[in-house]
Design brief:
By secondary structure, the chain is of the alpha+beta class. It contains 15 helices and 26 strands.
Length: 572
């Protein structure tokens, strides 16, 4: 039975929960739903495991993790996860790639990392809701400054402009809705100061400060890699302080088969790879050039699907390198665990609006960074795509503290932060199958050949070939070897009744097995020198004696990231 889902709206927490439960119920052989913790407001943190239960246990298969909506307002990530789940469940048995993936791999889906903050985002006018954790600094009796509120009751929090002869904004003569920065030589005319729509705590006239955020948490800055308390209040009180982030960390500790990850964010239209905190020179300094080559090769798959570039947040998104993003998930999973992780910034609004150089300008796309003509061009696109609903015309409002102001501007939630509803599905289609492609790249260790050769009276030579059929090696990355977390492939021989071992060891460690990534074309660091032995397979042998025939032995291979496989060998 197919669980119907449409992408004509953004799903709230109850809807997401209902969909996940229905999928788990109706696809019992493929889906298992569990809660991995609770939010501060008591909501379950849902993870849906997708795999064919008939082909083995999830934890004995290579695992791939996909999540969305770490940041409360980036709700498009949830929709991408839901669409991927629907694709996998409805495609099983019909789509060869999907069928092979779920037969051999466990896919762990967490569509909504931040349910509390997202629920505030979806059900109130607020667009900066963090993790929905009340901030004591905001409630403090001595707190001062402007805080966002929907003053005119239109369901949006936009912008206030206040006339001021010393203001640094003015209305465009080409379209008075657009505000442009005042030039140094501008004199005379009408000028404005611009603020977020809201009220002011402890205001007695004069300078308008910004109040502490109403909420804390909900940030991709609370992971331990390079964690810093100076991340503009985003990092939390200490690493893994947020219950959602801690729950994910605990889940990973318990699911050691997970070898690859992808997290969905908005907006920008980019395929991200590590690092956020360090530049690409870090790979060279640590001897990790091979990992960078793999990142770029796999990222190119997403780039081809979406038309978006593959880039490093540090190299291309961080204009001030001294204030680089710390505590990001991509850096943690790769640097501390050697796992391959990608991030996707869905919703390529700037590119769609006709700004192909958006990425080259450091991803900054706020009014003050655009020229007058660029602002006019952006507004024309918003008008066209939203039927005028994406911009609130400036209207007078009698502010209780500032006096006469005008409220208006772009309604950012479903224009800038997330796609307008009629563009949501097309935005998802560009990239939602990318993590599915990535999941097929995991190492897959199989016993590709097993046989017994009779040597004499009841004596046999048992031979097995153990191969990694995946793209990635069983150690996943050079970083995983560098930090000594790579785990060798292991093989075990179980003797049937009446069978004794004459030569060989019942348990053996084979080391790591290469995949196909060591032969990437176009990457000299991965070139295979002439005469280099095949690194993706190893042969093991035993000599056994059977007291009576027929008899049998069982061979089991196990790889922490490449899964478990067994083969029965008959002695006759």
């Amino acid at each position: 039975m197919t669980v119907n889902i449409s992408f004509d709206h953004y799903h709230d927490y109850n809807e997401v929960t209902g969909l996940l439960r229905d999928w788990a119920l109706n696809y019992d052989g493929l889906a298992t739903l569990e809660t991995i913790g609770k939010t501060p407001q008591g909501r379950d943190l849902w993870v849906l495991t997708l795999t064919n239960k008939g082909t083995g246990k999830a934890h004995e298969k290579p695992g791939f993790w996909i999540d969305g909506n770490t940041h409360a307002g980036e709700i498009t990530g949830t929709e991408a996860c839901l669409k991927a789940i629907h694709h996998l469940l409805t495609g099983y048995g019909k789509d060869l790639e999907v069928t092979e993936l779920l037969d051999s791999t466990a896919v762990y889906m967490m569509p909504r990392v931040n349910p509390d903050g997202s629920e505030i985002y979806l059900t109130t006018p607020h667009s900066r809701t963090s993790g929905g954790i009340p901030n004591p600094e905001f409630e403090d009796e001595f707190a001062e400054g402007l805080y966002p509120e929907d003053l005119n009751g239109d369901g949006n929090i936009t912008t206030m402009r206040l006339r001021d002869p010393n203001g640094d904004w003015k209305a465009s003569e080409k379209d008075p809705r657009v505000l442009v920065k005042r030039k140094p030589e501008d004199r005379g005319g009408v000028y404005y100061r611009v603020y977020r729509e809201g009220l002011i705590k402890g205001f007695y006239g004069g300078e308008v400060k910004m109040a502490p955020s109403r909420w804390k948490g909900g940030s991709n800055r609370n992971f331990p890699a390079g964690w810093s308390p100076t991340q503009s209040g985003q990092g939390g009180l200490f690493p893994l302080w947020e219950p959602e982030i801690r729950a994910i960390a605990d889940y990973f500790y318990e699911h050691k088969n997970i070898g690859g990850l992808l997290t969905y964010h908005t907006y920008s239209g980019i395929v991200m790879r590590p690092y956020a905190l360090w530049g690409d020179k870090h790979y060279e300094e640590k001897g990790l050039e091979k990992d960078l080559a793999v990142y770029n090769a796999l990222g190119a798959i997403g780039a081809e699907m979406s038309g978006w570039p593959v880039l490093s947040p540090h190299e291309e998104m961080t204009l001030n390198k001294k204030a680089a993003r710390a505590g990001c998930s991509m850096d943690w999973w790769y640097d501390h665990f050697g796992l391959l992780m990608f991030g996707i910034e869905i919703w390529d609004m700037p590119s769609r609006a006709g700004f192909p150089n958006f990425h080259e300008r450091g991803m900054r796309f706020v009014s003050g960074d655009l020229t007058e003509d660029e602002n006019l061009k952006l507004l024309a696109w918003i008008d066209d795509q939203t039927g005028g609903e994406g911009f609130q015309d400036w209207t007078p409002y009698d502010h209780p503290q500032l006096g006469p102001v005008e409220i208006g501007g772009v309604r950012t939630k479903y224009v800038m932060q997330n796609p307008p509803l009629h563009l949501l599905d097309s935005a998802l289609d560009k990239i939602y199958t990318f993590p599915i492609k990535l999941a097929t790249m995991l190492p897959h260790v199989k016993i590709t050949e097993s046989k017994a050769e009779r040597l004499g009276d009841g004596v046999f030579n048992v031979k097995a070939e153990v191969s990694n059929l995946g793209f990635l090696p069983t150690n996943l990355t050079e970083q995983r070897k560098r930090i000594k977390l790579d785990s060798p492939v292991k093989v075990k021989l179980e003797l049937g009744e009446g069978v004794e071992l004459l030569a060989g060891r019942e348990r053996m460690k084979l080391g790591n097995l290469e995949g196909r990534s060591d032969r990437l074309p176009g990457h000299p660091s991965y070139g295979v020198a002439g005469g280099k032995p095949e690194g993706s397979k190893k042969t093991v042998e035993w000599t056994v004696r059977a007291k009576e025939l027929p008899a049998s032995v069982r061979i089991t291979s196990f790889s922490l990231k490449g899964g478990r496989d067994t083969a029965e060998v008959e002695l006759a």
